[in-house]
């Protein structure tokens, strides 16, 4: 456990130093391809860093914040776009925090707007804004109230990912496809590209956590949903004035599709590496550190809730 903590410190120290480099180099290099090229070694490093970790919690958090969010934000920043771009430029401290954490720099935030939905999140948002002037990006927006797959993925589920994929993938592909396709079909390639990139990134994150050969089930999960969501947009534009499906019908139907495909393609590869057992053991090791003040490895403790139930048992439910 102590060795893993040391690895975590090394990984994040390296990431912070890399972001400091990116902030500094932009004072010397104008936005464009040259700046993007100067960021390329950092992109490679960010994809490597999670491999230094083995903990489910440390690896999952680091790969999501650094490999995914920070890399995609830097891609935008290379062309003076995205949350890292500001005029005047952001101070280095705020630049680094914005790059690797799910936060935004906004001064017109209504901290009460989501308090009824999540009191805990509202309190954390209050603290974040009071200390450094940041707003926490919402992760979910009542996904159970989704009226369609488009509404579920675009406005309600995993909004941090949606917010970063929209400018980095959807808009560029939409701009290109709009030159060759009609308005009705112009968004379809952009939707598909967005879901494919999301699927590949999820596949990569699952690999970091489990270190198992990819099964590509997660990628197919997002390909299927990209196809369905893209066709949904086309059908709405084609038949919107003719056929209207009530939200009380389309909403539950969308949730059924999400749940069915999740149990079919999303959960099995996630549980294949005994992720839930490893997470439980890591938590018990953390409790050992807090309660007794000693470092122990996850393999030195047992999970009281999962002693006789492994991921192979869970996987049988989905097969």
From TrEMBL:
<feature type="transmembrane region" description="Helical">
    <location>
        <begin position="247"/>
        <end position="267"/>
    </location>
</feature>
<feature type="transmembrane region" description="Helical">
    <location>
        <begin position="34"/>
        <end position="51"/>
    </location>
</feature>
<protein>
    <recommendedName>
        <fullName>Wax synthase domain-containing protein</fullName>
    </recommendedName>
</protein>
<dbReference type="GO" id="GO:0016020">
    <property type="term" value="C:membrane"/>
</dbReference>
<keyword id="KW-0012">Acyltransferase</keyword>
<keyword id="KW-0443">Lipid metabolism</keyword>
<dbReference type="Pfam" id="PF13813">
    <property type="entry name" value="MBOAT_2"/>
</dbReference>
<dbReference type="InterPro" id="IPR044851">
    <property type="entry name" value="Wax_synthase"/>
</dbReference>
<feature type="domain" description="Wax synthase">
    <location>
        <begin position="137"/>
        <end position="223"/>
    </location>
</feature>
<dbReference type="GO" id="GO:0006629">
    <property type="term" value="P:lipid metabolic process"/>
</dbReference>
<feature type="transmembrane region" description="Helical">
    <location>
        <begin position="185"/>
        <end position="209"/>
    </location>
</feature>
<keyword id="KW-0808">Transferase</keyword>
<dbReference type="InterPro" id="IPR032805">
    <property type="entry name" value="Wax_synthase_dom"/>
</dbReference>
<feature type="transmembrane region" description="Helical">
    <location>
        <begin position="58"/>
        <end position="79"/>
    </location>
</feature>
<feature type="transmembrane region" description="Helical">
    <location>
        <begin position="215"/>
        <end position="235"/>
    </location>
</feature>
<comment type="similarity">
    <text>Belongs to the wax synthase family.</text>
</comment>
<keyword id="KW-1133">Transmembrane helix</keyword>
<dbReference type="GO" id="GO:0008374">
    <property type="term" value="F:O-acyltransferase activity"/>
</dbReference>
<keyword id="KW-0472">Membrane</keyword>
<keyword id="KW-0812">Transmembrane</keyword>
């Amino acid at each position: 456990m102590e060795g893993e903590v040391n690895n975590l410190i090394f990984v994040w120290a390296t990431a912070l130093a890399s972001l400091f480099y990116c902030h500094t180099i932009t004072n010397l290099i104008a936005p464009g391809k040259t700046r993007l090229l100067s960021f390329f070694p950092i992109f490679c490093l960010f994809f490597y860093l999670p491999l230094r970790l083995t903990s489910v919690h440390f690896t999952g958090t680091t790969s999501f914040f650094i490999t995914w969010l920070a890399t995609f934000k830097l891609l935008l920043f290379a062309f003076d776009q995205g949350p890292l771009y500001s005029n005047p430029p952001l101070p280095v401290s705020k630049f680094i925090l914005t790059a690797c954490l799910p936060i935004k720099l906004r001064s017109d935030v209504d901290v009460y707007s989501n308090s009824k939905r999540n009191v805990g999140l509202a309190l954390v948002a209050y603290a974040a804004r009071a200390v450094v002037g940041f707003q926490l990006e919402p992760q979910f927006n009542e996904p159970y109230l989704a009226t369609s797959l488009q509404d579920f993925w675009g406005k309600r589920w995993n909004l941090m990912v949606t917010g970063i994929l929209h400018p980095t993938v959807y808009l560029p592909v939409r701009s290109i496809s709009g030159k060759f396709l009609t308005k009705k079909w112009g968004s379809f390639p952009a939707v598909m590209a967005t879901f494919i990139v999301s699927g590949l990134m999820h596949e990569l994150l699952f690999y970091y956590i489990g270190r198992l050969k990819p099964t590509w089930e997660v990628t197919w999960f997002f390909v299927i949903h990209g196809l369905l969501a893209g066709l949904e947009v086309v059908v709405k534009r084609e038949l919107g004035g003719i056929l209207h499906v009530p939200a009380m019908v389309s909403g539950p139907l969308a949730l059924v599709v999400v749940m069915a495909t999740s149990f079919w393609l999303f959960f099995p590869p996630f549980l294949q590496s005994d992720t839930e057992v490893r997470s439980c053991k890591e938590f018990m090791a953390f409790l050992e550190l807090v309660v007794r003040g000693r470092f122990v490895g996850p393999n030195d403790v047992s999970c009281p809730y999962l002693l006789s139930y492994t991921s192979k048992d869970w996987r049988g439910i989905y097969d």
